[in-house]
Amino acid sequence: MQVAVRILGMFLRLLNLVLAPVFWLRARHKRPLPPAPQPLLLRSATSLAAAVRQGEIKSEELVFAYIDHIKAVNPFLNAIVEERYRAAVDDARAVDRKIEEAKKNGTFETLAAEKPLLGVPFTVKESCSLAGMSNAVGCLENAGRKATKDGEAVRLVKEAGAIPLLVSNTPELCLGWETTNLLRGTTNNPYCLNRTPGGSSGGEGALLACGASPVSVSSDIAGSIRLPAAFCGVYGHKPTPGIISIEGHVPTLSDEKYPLFLTVGPMTRKAEDLPLMMKIMAGENRQKLQLDRPVDMKDITVFYMTEATNSPALLPVDDSIRDTIISAVRYLETGCGCKVSEKKFKELENSVEISASVFFSMKDIPNMLQDPADPKRDKSLALELLKYLFGGASRSLQALGFALINRTKLFIPESRNAYYSQKAQKLKEEFQKVLCDTGVFLYPVFNGPAHRHNEVFLKASGVMYSMVFNILGMPATTVPLGFHNGLPIAIQVIAAPNQDRLCLAVAKQLEIGFGGWRPPNLHK
Fold this sequence. Notes:
Blueprint: H1 3-26, H2 45-53, H3 59-77, E1 80-83, H4 85-105, H5 108-114, E2 121-125, H6 152-159, E3 163-168, E4 180-181, E5 185-186, H7 202-209, E6 215-220, H8 226-232, E7 235-238, H9 258-261, E8 263-268, H10 273-282, E9 301-304, H11 319-335, E10 339-340, H12 351-359, E11 370-371, E12 374-378, H13 381-389, H14 397-408, H15 417-435, E13 439-444, H16 456-459, H17 464-472, E14 476-484, E15 487-494, H18 500-514
Helix pairs in contact: 3-4, 6-10, 7-8, 11-18, 12-15, 12-17, 13-14
């Protein structure tokens, strides 16, 4: 335990208590929710792909339905960076022609097998790179920059027959847990527009939650898939690192630890789409995960914790999340025949120190204070904060907050890096030994549901629940399990490395038991 970290935590906890009325007053006005999707858009991508193949619906009709709905909801969300609607319609018409031709010449079965998402739309987090679309990733100095080619995961999803509709909003260079930047503005949570959808995949989370996208290509380096999925009531999977290529992702770092922490992965509205997306996005590495190997729930042992620590220095986990974890454990035990273990992983109480120390020991972490006009010079953080107050800053408050964390390293001395790196390795080994190939761990994604815009600065310690599993290199799936006061409640299901199939199987079972995703205006 680092005393300085805990003192900082206590200060932020006190500040959170003092400022809570201010945030409540600023966000007390109720804003209308986005319109509900039509029944067609409530279906899974797997179901929609089958409908296109069987001629139940034309790809062109499906693409138009999504475009119309996106146009209806985005004024509420501000989730889109750039769209390609006209090109997507052209792609859909080409798919419909290809299906007709394949049926005539007897090659339809081969076409269907090779392209499991044929004719189904999807959306892309801007940082994952969609050729010809914006690749500025929220930075003013990169305005107008386009991706010259698809990121590898995006390419594989397109190769499977899916049709990209747009790229979505992120914080600057994905360095933040709230989706906001000075180039594109702030993205809103569709269940309460005064709240954040999380970050950095907040644009994707908001679109999926509204039924404006069936599946998404996103990325996760510190909870960036799982946190938006939790805040927006959808599914998000952080794969075992190295399984899905991160080629084409922006930013990229030269540090050897970077590809161990960053993963590209799927976000979906339906649990059944996660295995399909994983098979597609993993390419030749899919065999390493044995995703088609059946999972018998009676062979699964469920471990769980409702909180990492009861330290007064850190914000407690909301009762709604604690209760939901207990409910999920009981359901898996009594309804599915899983075994339950009371074993706890005590070292998780040091998640803040482990995560911050190991993460910020990487070299080449983007310097948000670097002057684009003179890369050898850093701008003054104090001056940028002052300029922000008067609308003249070159970075958002979120980015400046990250710069402050990067500069201070949460007051963890460099001499302690090796110590916390060893703690991380021992914790990973303990998880691998305990979970093995039949265990899953149920845990919070964050310490509460979606918070109000800008409250992230006071609640940042909550990312300890997701970020640590990037450091440990373990697969984890966000699973929505209902609502509390109108906001989605979710947990994460974690497994040992390369045991992603266990996460996905449990997610599917919990969807059966708890109902899964329900869009705004249809979730009560």
